[in-house]
Amino acid sequence: MNESQKLVLGEKITIRVISGRGGKPIGRLPDGRVILFDVENPFFSMLALGQSVECRVKVIGENYVIVDPIREPEEKGTVHYLEVDVDLIVMGSRGRGGIVGFLGSTSQHVVEACTKPIIIVK
To answer: Is the pLDDT of residue 66 over 60?
Structure first.
C-alpha cells in the first residue's frame, strides 16, 4: 500500500455500497481491504446496493476497515463520475423521460453535468 492509500482514524471517506456475504452491505478499498459498516449506526438500515454514503473511519485493521456512516446514503443510482479519472463514460438509457423520451433522468443529468465524452446506449 502506498502513502496515498493510508487511512487515518476519523478521516471522512465516501463509500459505494456493494453486496457482501449473505447480502450484507460492505465496501471495498482500492487496495482490496473490505469496508464494514457499524451495524449499530442509525444509518446502517438505510444502506442499499449502489448507494454512496459518507463515513468516518472508526477502526483500521490489516484486511478490513470499519466505518461509521455520518449521514443518510445518497439516492440509489447516484452517479459519481467525477470521483474517477476516466477518459470516456459509457452508460445505458432506459429513455423514460428527458430529452424527447430518448434519455432517462440519470443519463440526462450526467450529460448536463459532465465535461467528459459520453456514449449513451439505448
So the answer is: yes
